[in-house]
Amino acid sequence: xxxxxxxxxxxxxxxxxSALPGEERxxxxxxxxxxxxxxxxxxxxxxxxxxxxGYVTISARGNSxxxxxxxxxxxxxxxxxxxxxxxxxxxxxxxxxxxxxEVLRALSAxxxxxxxxxxxxxxxxxxxxxDALEPATGSRLSKSLEAMMTSRQSAGVVPRITLSDWLxxxxxxxxxxxxxxxxxxxxxxxxxxxxxxxxxxKAAGKVQLSGGWLTNSAGQVKASLTAMEMQLLSLLxxxxxxxxxxxxxGTATLLEASSSMELVGTEVQAKVRLRxxxxxLTEEGLTQALLDxxxxxxxxxxxxxxxxxxxxxQAMAGCADLAQWHAMNWPERYPALTWxxxxxxEREA
Amino acid sequence: xxxxxxxxxxxxxxxxxxxxxxxxxxxxxxxxxxVSILRTAVTRIMPLAGAAAWWMTLVCLLPxxxxxxxxxxxxxxxxxxxxxxxxxxxxxxxxxxxxCGLAAAALAVDAxxxxxxxxxxxxxxxGTQGTQWTLALAATGLLLFALNGEALARGVYFLRVPxxxxxxxxxxxxxxxAKLDHLFPVLGGGASGLWAAFQAGAGMGWVFLxxxxxxxxxxxxxxxxxxxxxxxxxxxxxxNLALPHELLANQSxxxxxxxxxxxxxxxxxxxxxxxxxxxxxFLSLGSGVSLCAGQLLAPTGRKIAWLPGVLALAVATTQLxxxxxxxxxxxxxxxxxxxALGVGAGVSLLACGRKRK
Lengths: 349, 357
Hints:
Chain A is of the alpha/beta class and about 350 residues long. Chain A has helices spanning about 1-15, 65-75, 90-95, 100-110, 125-130, 140-155, 165-170, 225-235, 285-305, 310-315, 320-330, 330-335; strands at about 25, 30-35, 40-45, 55-60, 80, 85-90, 120, 175-180, 205-215, 220-225, 245, 250-265, 265-275, 340-345. Chain B has one domain: Up-down Bundle (Amino acid/polyamine transporter I), CATH 1.20.1740.10.
């Protein structure tokens, strides 16, 4: 009897498996979407599955997103599968348009699109960026992208918001999306205060992931953050605890960092604690530099209407139901909030 | 479950076997209760109550819980071991038949809801290629193997710990994405949404009356519904912590509601969750059909081996109907299941009490 049950259960659990062999299916690593003057362009980076490896970009255009994706699948050498997507790349014009939130919802409604794919926006041509994506280390683009995003995120210079994260933010927080830019010979501006496309930095690949794009309550991209500003945001979010923190006045090696935030009426009281070493800044100098930088960052967030720190989560806790929350009109209330920072720094001798 | 021993007398062995069968039946009932409560909560209460779903489910279960406790008190006063026995003492075979018939009808309706959810999960969750009817036939075909004698009851008893472990893994996966503010706003969409959720879910406590249909496994039975109820509330709380109100309240279709419970889990945990849903729905379907057959035959005292299989096929034929229309009709029956069983139990207990006086 137990064996019969085991057989039944095994058959049941395996009932969902598809019989399509690996060689007859192409696992897309990156999906890129852009839109201009009503023409939608969808492109994807897939492995060639040939000896020696390599990747190829295929693309299609349609009069709607659905049509472009259908044409992409119809013209691909094999059936496309989006279950291994690592990156969802969007053109900046599309990301700044009112259609962008609906595009994200439409993609999430397609069950085969991997919800853990990171969202990314580029000012460059989407297909050019796809073409430039090659494995920087090893032979697998998916692994290379994962490693790149993880190291950038550890350094605090990029946000990593997945499709699932974006959906689960709801009305409580606005996302900051990763910025991607093509490296070119004109990249000459030194320092982390430059935009991704201007950074005087050469990575192993030809695409630079650096900084972020601020979205407003309607889900549209409104402004960008440099790598330096992104680090400060990561510090406030509690994601940056160690590493090198860059400020206009100098750098500091963080040994320990923590932050907390409380909404009191119309004021946000934020506390930042740092322990650092190897810096040209004294404790007073670092405190002042941080205060100036954080005020600049929060002003930028407020101007863009981007509640990247999720202050709304605390505001919602005081509302009994959704109607009361909507009556609060958070998108108008948030930019008017004042910020008070308490910085505690300790330099290691 | 040990049923034979060289040191026990035949009477002791018989008593052990009967206790083992009652324990297996209790496992079946608990599985059916958990699946029925979670299925109703996820597909009917959550879209209406949103962030308030976990405590709204608790409120919806209270009528059934109160009826169960009143039933326990009535059985204690009337000195009957079960509701059918009480009905037989008071109203004769017809009375017992009516009580068992009502229970069988409730179990049959629940089985139809379960198979509808199972087929929807296959088509929209797993993405299995096939029509509603062919998948129902495939599931029923497998079910016919599992309905062999006492295999299903013992299989459910055997699997209770592995299923709980898998559920634990899924809840840990949900908790990894949990945020405390997802429990707010506390009242969800407001009073109108909560009232609609209550109307949709108030009848789901009918499952708590099922243990009153058989003799208890222990002397005290008042706490019998608490383990499945507690487990379901904890699971729903984890789900509410993982997903915000804005995401929960936007779902309207059956498939969307079921898929939402697994969509935002990490990849491997998602696979475990889908498997758990499929296995739990399948075993609950089998348990419902098996218990329904048991209730239909209880007044006669006979055993018909092929009856559960016939009932399973009958339940499968409901999948020839339009799934959306079927789901709406099943939802409308929810409250009446509790009312019917409650009235049947109440009448039996009152009549028995009067007869003893």
